Amino acid sequence: MWLLIQNESVSNSFHELTVELSTLLDIFPVTEFPNLSEDVKELVILIRKQCWEKKCFVDPTDKNLRYDVIKLLDQIKKEIIPDYSELLRVFGRLGLIGSGSCKEEIESLEDEVSNHNQVCEKSTVEIIALIGLVRYGKCVLFGASTPRYELASSSSFSEVVFPEDFKCPISLDLMKDPVVVATGQTYDRNSISHWIDSGHETCPKTGQNLVHMNLIPNKAMKNLIALWCRENKIPFESTEPNDKINMTTINKAAMEATRMTAVFLVDKLAASQLPETANRIIFELRVLSKTSSDNRACIAEAGAIPKLVQYLASENAQLQVNAVTTILNLSIFEGNKRKIMESAETLEGVIEVLRSGKTWEAKENAAATIFSLSALHEYRKKLWRKSRVVKGLVELAKSGPVSAKKDALVAILNLAGDRDAVGRLIEGGVVEMAVEVAEAVPEEAVAILATVAKRGGALAVAGAKGAVRKLAEVLRDGPETAKESAAAGLVSVCRRGGTEVLAQLVATPGIERTIWEVMGMGTMRARRKGASLLRILRRWSVAVEDQTAVAYSTNHVSTLSIVQT
């Protein structure tokens, strides 16, 4: 479709090329090449003649089809619902004859957005409008797509072998946002950012000094990874916000197409009777809500949230997953947070999925929804006061897979941002849980311990079995990203936990050397916390030596008195 819209400019470009080719052939000294056969010489003359005769040409059929597409976009822009038969005729001429071909066209257009973004805003706007048109036509003409779950289980996904070039040299995981550093090596943005923030000034792979710390997006690598994932039916979501579609450039036609699509799907959902039909419709809403804030706003305004609630309790596992994930996507838009929080049924439905969802994926996305809602301070208090929220997050963090643990822990970390919540979190067993899962997810677990300790729960952390030892071990052997939180947690606990805590810390092998390393190589905050920790330990050590000296002196005097007697 994008090529169709550009057909006149493309035709002009070809015409310019043929003129340039003709010019080159005019000055080409054919007579100076005696070894050329007569056939070749005749061919050169023939091409030269044809190049001069050719004029800019646009196929009338394509020209008419382009007009029909632009007419549909103009109708949508004016909030006029396109005629069904006309929409079907145009889509048929475009070769869009089913959900599959429409999906492929949308993916191709999204790739075009990636290529044009930051380069030509006008082109990006036009492509986004086409995406809206195709998505609307797909839903109206061919119905909602049948969801595919070839890789729904974590076990099947873990069996996929990624090409080595697509893996980050630091994390060894598939790169979501590849960037190039000063040495020319490519890393995933999150991994190399953590490396640099930890105080390193060298390239992890080559060991060379980085002459600058700029991270240059490797768009060619990202496109290759996205293409490979699509061909292998592997979901690929970039960590870069608004990666494919920059909605600041959205136009009226695209907005109206999205609104019409949302209204159509929500109306169909309200009328659906079969779980299979509802699942397909909710899956379409899930996909649509993943793209942008404007899409999320349109879906909520169409009344989707109340319609989704009943499916949170569905016995159909995939239907439940799609419903809670759609609510998660909608909650990302700040305006929708209020709609969800003010609907008791919606919030209770999400909490129930968190506690007793059919699959880990459903529970994980329910935890992510809690995290999203708790981003606003005014909603944190309402969430942490519900004991079922805290219990659900703690249970998920204890028994869920790693990805679910992380979602549960970051949600707890958000709730802990409210000082009044710390007491409820401690009562709910958050401290003991964090110690238990620190081996699997050290960064998130230690961050929770540090936050709880800082906000009034230092004695609870100090009294939890193994908490001080675990913080010390992470400070010594844990990942760089977790050491800062471990140092901060130990400072808070040591200041309020008494001599027993300090004795436990000192008993950790190599702790003083570890603190010196943090002070020399850690982040700025980690260095400050390391220095504070070292001062606390030294003051304690001096106090212990003084007490020992006093005790020795007292015992010595007593011994002399006995001898004299």
Structure description:
The relative contact order is 0.05. The protein has five domains: 53 residues, no CATH class; 83 residues, no CATH class; 69 residues, 2-Layer Sandwich (Herpes Virus-1); 154 residues, Leucine-rich Repeat Variant (Alpha Horseshoe), CATH 1.25.10; 100 residues. With 565 residues, it is mainly α. It is 70% helix and 1% strand. One of its GO terms (molecular function) is ubiquitin protein ligase activity. Keywords: Repeat, Transferase, Ubl conjugation pathway. Its EC number is 2.3.2.27. It holds the Pfam family ARM_PUB.
What helical percentage do the residues reach? over 70%
Indicate the mean pLDDT: 84
Low-confidence parts: 150-159, 240-249
CATH superfamily of the largest domain: Leucine-rich Repeat Variant
Question: How many structural domains in the coordinates?
Answer: 5
What profile does the largest beta sheet have?
Answer: 3 strands, antiparallel
Strand content: under 5%
